[in-house]
Amino acid sequence: MKNYVIKGNICYSKTREELCITENGYIVCEGGRCAGVYETLPEEYETLPCYNYEDKIIIPGLVDLHVHAPQYAFRGMGMDLELLDWLNTHTFVEEAKYADLEYAEKAYDIFTEDLKNSATTRACIFGTIHTEATLLLMEKLEETGLKAYVGKVNMDRNSPKYLCEENAEKSVKDTEEWLMKSQRFKNIKPVLTPRFTPSCTDELLERLSGLQKKYQLPVQSHLSENLGEIDWVKELCPGTACYGESYDRYDMFGNNCPTVMAHCVHSPEKEIEMMQRQKVFIAHCPESNANLSSGVAPVKKYLEKDMKVGLGTDIAAGSSLSVLKAMVTAVQCSKLRWRLYDQSVLPLTMEEVFFMATKGGGEFFGKVGSFEEGYELDAVVFDDSKIKHPQTLSVKERLKRLIYLADERNITAKFVDGQVIFREN
Amino acid sequence: MKNYVIKGNICYSKTREELCITENGYIVCEGGRCAGVYETLPEEYETLPCYNYEDKIIIPGLVDLHVHAPQYAFRGMGMDLELLDWLNTHTFVEEAKYADLEYAEKAYDIFTEDLKNSATTRACIFGTIHTEATLLLMEKLEETGLKAYVGKVNMDRNSPKYLCEENAEKSVKDTEEWLMKSQRFKNIKPVLTPRFTPSCTDELLERLSGLQKKYQLPVQSHLSENLGEIDWVKELCPGTACYGESYDRYDMFGNNCPTVMAHCVHSPEKEIEMMQRQKVFIAHCPESNANLSSGVAPVKKYLEKDMKVGLGTDIAAGSSLSVLKAMVTAVQCSKLRWRLYDQSVLPLTMEEVFFMATKGGGEFFGKVGSFEEGYELDAVVFDDSKIKHPQTLSVKERLKRLIYLADERNITAKFVDGQVIFREN
User: A34 CB contacts (<8 Å, ≥6 apart)?
Assistant: First the structure.
């Protein structure tokens, strides 16, 4: 059933500055796509079935542009280190467990269930190096009805023996096998996932680039997150002018290769220009960047340059799977960056983080993240009545409050690409 | 019933570095006070009734050293301004409503209910200038069984007409009347609450100091939160060497006057020395300081000087009433301060924020915030089994994870001063 009407208080972004609110309005869904938002329902749609959410708040589904599914198992723990030590001490040890499908099954059940119940409708997800466990994750996600890109991770150097692929050839062979097996999924699509430059030999990146071209795949990876990491990449790639170039020289940095890079906290001007020109998506992960003492990305600057920016939770360097919390943390961190470090880059507004969490990140998936005409209909309905208040609030006040205070308990219904994922009553 | 045993996994601080964990241990409560933590229950206590929380996690009740009860009504809203504009635009407008007791009743019911259900057992609370509404707040809090200091706010200058007391004399007369009426409460005690120096004439502070001495009252206020505020105090108090002196010259800054000052983000060395010498408590409010772009207090430095430091949620400049969240935010903000601003002050550890949230802030209430012998027994029992995990975790791992991920849904029981506040089954 992909033709229907949803009624309620409708909030969505047109641009990063323009937040549109239609009180007691109607979203029309035709064939899974948005056919417009109306204050009064046009006659031609009156016969369509209507999900009536009356006084509730309806926003586009949230987009998590960067999340590591296997790391969900140790969220909230091991926050005492910076990136490289954190990877070696906590992360790689955990990811190695996914060689065991029984463990993967238990862990991915928990991740998938929580993601389904959250306000997230789309995500770019890292798996592990393990083909079978990654397919299992995709299968579980497929069943939820959510849409996501999932990547089997590639890493063939500078990784502990128990989590290092034999060589570039074997890594790519496994990846191609995984790609073939991934074709059975409808909602979940594969994304090439070289972990980050330090984990990938030149040969591996070159071969992955071959796969990218052969199958027209998108790519996700990490970029300029931590100062120690950036120095290391400089050593590893002596010919490059910036970290971004280590991907770009293998044609995996935007242009004809849809790319999302997590972090970009310390990107130099040259890298920023390249990302802008080549339309590389930035997954801004504020909680992760605080937890690992990485810093704060100059996000307002990226937005002002009309670069492609969305939000990522970056589980488990971020502790929370909630993109609502990522929105709040993004604003808070941008204020501290402004106050403590650089008054030339202004703090983010609520309108801007709402845009990033919806239409900004959604663009990586196509026409996603807004209720404008032609957008795939992803929607989340919030019942904020349990967040008690002594007086009447405007819809905009309720929306702002909800971003700070709501969690999965306040979600009444969720739609992805026009399909109902769940709904109360 | 104030003699009993609580069984479970017991976690508490002895010092800011030493987190004690007794797995499957026993806390003995005698006459409302802790008589020791034991791995094996001594024979003499075997006949006492036992609350058996088996595999759950038990920590001391959390202490919120700074929270504005009337502002709870607009938490999560109006986060687009710095302190002084935020006060004028959002805060004063809201606080004025508490002249209406019907509104106060509705609003304070919501605040009190949420505080009761939280992990907080003790709090230092600001009311408004209104005597009756503040008494109403105290009455509602008294019924919960929680222990708290509550202050009727004093402000007789630089405040909008609708929220400004007539003059110093009237302000103090009302305050004394409120003090008299407060005597009927057992758990809830009055605290003198000059809002902050900009809102209080010299005459008012002098008269309040008289009340302080007459009734031996503690004092709470704000200090060195925001750069604009600090400049303003400098103008208002030309004779003072630092903001702290504006309270100290009226003997309301530690020594014989138990004092808690919120924020201390930008305290100069002289002020820090004075706070250290005079044992002034600092309420560190990290979320508030981020939301209002105030900055980050150098908390590690305060701890290393053995100063008195606890945590505050500072509703509604902070959006969350959860001291657990304040702990996480304190660590995150200290990391960003270290990375972005000043590498001479190290980030906070989980052990340190746990200490601040319990024994550090608890000291303002006496022997509170630990399970060491002689401490008043405040305890919160967490059932973290709903925070699913694919493998076995140590109690310490579970505690860390709980601090990041738990909320009121995970609280099974709560004790204050040996009394049961609530408990499941």
Answer: A27, A28, A370, A371, A372, A373, A374, A375, A376, A377
Q: Does B80 touch chain A (CB under 8 A)?
A: yes
Contact criterion met (CB < 8 Å) for A404 and B293: no
The DSSP element (H or E) to which A272 belongs, if any, is: helix A269-277
Chain B interface includes A153 (CB < 8 A): no
Q: Which residues pair with A124 in a beta bridge?
A: A149
The per-residue pLDDT for range B195-221, each reduced to its tens digit, is 999 999 999 999 999 999 999 999 999
Q: Is A339 on the interface with B (CB under 8 A)?
A: yes
What is the ipTM for the molecules in this complex? Answer: 0.97
Shortest distance, CA B387 to any CA of chain A (angstroms) = 9
pLDDT tens profile A376-417: 999 999 999 999 999 899 999 999 999 999 999 999 999 999
Separation between Cα atoms, residue A11 and residue B110, nearest integer Å: 27
Contact A336 B339 (CB under 8 A): no
Name the residue facing A332 among B290, B339, B340 (closest C-beta): B290
Per-residue exposure over B287-316, b if at least 16 CB sit within 10 Å of its own CB, e if not: bbbbbbbbbbbbbbebbeeebbbbbbbbbb
| Strands laid side by side in the A379-382 sheet | A33-38, A19-30, A4-13, A50-60, A379-382, A411-416, A419-423
**Could you tell me the two tokens for B279?**
């044992």
Query: Which residues in chain B are closer than 8 Å to A110, comparing Cβ atoms?
Result: 388-390
